């Protein structure tokens, strides 16, 4: 069994700590937060080592398509997966596409 360097464990712990803070700020009830973390973990595993910050919108949509095709999730569970990943990208990573700038007002 391979052991990871301490730096990796620290980085992973910090990542999830920040994500949990984002969940709290987003108003996700505490009892549901562990499920959001599990959804993000599944999403990361499904990327086969690709950095999640470098994924395109198409890559993310393909993941959601794959989840939808499995027919093992109820609607609310599918929505929870989407919300977990939305919070990851929009709140933790603060991707610009999540927060488009409003056009300047013409005087």
Q: What is the structure about, briefly put?
A:
The chain has 107 residues and is mainly α. The chain is built from 4 helices and no strands.
Write up this protein.
The protein is an all-alpha fold. The protein has a domain at 31-93. It has four helices and no strands. The chain has helices at 6-25, 30-46, 57-69, 75-92. Helix 1 packs across helix 2, helix 1 (6-25) crosses helix 4 (75-92) and helix 2 crosses helix 4. The termini are far apart. The model has no long low-confidence stretch (mean pLDDT 90). One of its GO terms (biological process) is DNA integration. This is Integrase SAM-like N-terminal domain-containing protein. Keywords: DNA-binding. Residues 25-91 form the Integrase SAM-like N-terminal domain. One of its GO terms (molecular function) is DNA binding.
Major sheet: none
Radius of gyration: 16 Å
Sheet-strand content, in percent, reads under 5%
E-strand count: 0
The secondary-structure element order is: HHHH
Report the uncertain regions: none
Q: Which whole number gives the mean pLDDT?
A: 90
Helix content: 55-70%
Please report the number of helical segments: 4
By secondary-structure content and strand pairing, the structural class works out as mainly alpha
- Gap from first CA to last CA: 66 Å
Coarse shape: globular
Organism: hydrothermal vent metagenome
Domain Integrase SAM-like N-terminal: 25-91
GO molecular function, one term: DNA binding
Protein name: Integrase SAM-like N-terminal domain-containing protein
